[in-house]
Write a structure and sequence with these properties.
By secondary structure, this protein is an alpha/beta fold. Helices cover about 50% and strands about 15% of the residues. It contains 15 helices and 9 strands. It has helices at about 10-35, 40-55, 60-80, 85-100, 100-115, 120-125, 130-160, 165-175, 180-195, 205-215, 235-240, 255-265, 290-295, 345-360, 385-395; strands spanning about 225-230, 245-250, 275, 295, 310, 330-340, 365-370, 400-410, 420-430. Strands 5-2-1-6-7-9-8 form a 7-stranded mixed β-sheet, with helices on both faces. Helix 14 links the parallel strand 6 (about 330-340) and strand 7. Helix 1 (about 10-35) runs antiparallel to helix 2 (about 40-55) and helix 5 runs antiparallel to helix 7 (about 130-160). It is elongated and about 100 Å long. The chain starts with 7 loop residues before the first helix and ends with a strand.
Length: about 425
């Protein structure tokens, strides 16, 4: 038989509180009836002060006040802590990856809420499709993705010496600003499937083929390769591991992408077979349920090429001289911009940066570009491919090779009922 435990102290406090409020209410009625209409506010003020005093004496109010004070103290304490600005994006990205699973579950729970808006009969009819079972299965597959992401977070905290107060500070900032970068993390997971799938990916292979062919004449220790906007690093890794360049510099502005890239070279605690589930994050345009749940096996535990250098910084401020080892003095430079130029807010600034860096080299200067021109919402100049090449030539480059645009997918679900493709421009330029 169950027992009900009554907290006598709480019961007594409640009784006293109710009796005092009752007395105040009676007093208000008396004052309201005795005082003239012009002094009606006086009775309200007197009773309000009495009510505030009674409320302030209750244990419940004291607990609430202490909690609010503690929270305010924590906020002020965090505001006083200064985090190194150069680490802010790094710690924010670690936090974003860490929050993938709760954000994914929250997103999926909204599907359940919307489902329950249907009538009981409609829900019963819909259950014949096992829709609700699919929602539960998607949650489980989120956890499989999170296995990889948790490893990334743990290793990033160790590798970059992240302090607890830094993560706590970013967490408080995210809560106060309601910042949520869930879909940036989702996009990064999809890049694993695009860039690093074990099965050759027809989105990335044509790009690598063109780039390798164009770099082949300079395939020696006299050449440095620079890859701005390197993302998860597939292009830079391929050039470093399969060619004989003096050094390959992958430059990525986003710490989120860099952390994902670093994972490729992590060797501890990873099984031989590793899958990501990139298609979980939308219920639209699937032909079969199995298509949404299907995994993509990715490469991992790779040997990082000794000539590969990964930098997280703004390409427009990149200085190659700071990153060359003692004794390194390559004559030639190759720039590889792959799905990069249309990310610019100021496209001219990108080209100026390429020109500035190329000035550090005495030999051949080559620029290989592959990608679409899907500009962002804040682009200060949006050129056609024809106009872009005119600008490049006006800034000292000569187009030496130009291919017909090639239709390629980008994070495209080849089994989906909707598939997006880009016509990718491919050209090479040189300068004196």
């Amino acid at each position: 038989m169950s027992r009900v435990v009554i907290n006598r102290e709480s019961l007594n406090e409640t009784s006293v509180f109710i009796s005092r409020i009752s007395i105040i209410l009676v007093l208000y009625l008396i004052l309201d009836s005795l005082l003239p209409q012009s002094l009606h506010r006086v009775s309200i003020i007197i009773c309000t002060l009495l009510f505030t005093g009674v409320l302030n004496q209750t244990k419940m109010f004291q607990v609430l006040k202490n909690r609010v004070s503690k929270y305010a103290f924590e906020i002020n304490e965090i505001k006083e802590i200064k985090i190194d600005p150069s680490r802010h994006d790094l710690v924010s990205s670690i936090y974003d990856i860490k929050e993938y699973l709760p954000n994914a579950q929250k997103w999926n729970n909204r599907r359940r809420i919307l489902f329950r808006k249907m009538t009981g009969l409609q829900q019963q009819l819909a259950r014949s499709t096992k829709y609700t079972e699919k929602l539960n299965t998607v949650d489980k597959y989120f956890e499989r993705n999170n296995t990889i992401l948790s490893t990334i977070v743990e290793e990033a905290i160790k590798r970059h010496n992240i302090e607890d107060f830094e993560l706590k500070m970013i967490e408080k900032q995210a809560e106060s600003s309601k910042r949520n970068n869930y879909f940036r993390v989702v996009e990064s997971l999809c890049h694993y499937a695009r860039d690093w799938s074990v099965k050759p990916n027809d989105e990335i292979i044509p790009l690598l083929r063109y780039i390798k062919n164009q770099t082949m004449p300079l395939n020696d220790k006299n050449t440095t390769v620079i890859v701005p906007g390197s993302g998860l690093g597939r292009v830079a890794h391929t050039l470093a591991s399969e060619m004989n360049f003096s050094s390959v510099h992958a430059i990525e502005f986003s710490w989120l992408m860099t952390l994902m890239n670093e994972f490729m070279y992590l060797k501890s605690g990873i099984n031989d077979s590793l899958n990501v589930y990139p298609y979980l994050h939308t219920y639209s345009n699937h032909f079969k349920t199995a298509d949404q749940l299907r995994p993509v096996q990715i490469q991992h535990s790779l040997e990082k090429p000794s000539n590969l250098n990964i930098h997280t910084e703004d390409f427009t401020k990149f200085a190659i001289a700071e990153h060359l080892e003692t004794g390194q003095d390559p004559e030639n430079v190759v720039f590889v911009t792959c799905f990069f130029l249309d990310t610019a807010e100021n496209l001219v600034e990108y080209i100026q940066a390429i020109n500035r860096i190329s000035g550090s080299f005495k030999g051949v200067k080559k620029w290989i570009n592959v990608g679409p021109l899907k500009y962002g919402t804040a682009a200060q100049i949006e050129l056609s491919d024809e106009e872009l090449k005119l600008l490049v030539e006006s800034m000292g480059w000569k187009i030496t090779d130009e291919q017909e645009p090639e239709l390629l997918g980008y994070l495209t679900d080849k089994k989906g009922l909707w598939q997006g493709y880009y016509n990718v421009s491919k050209w090479t330029a040189t300068r004196d």
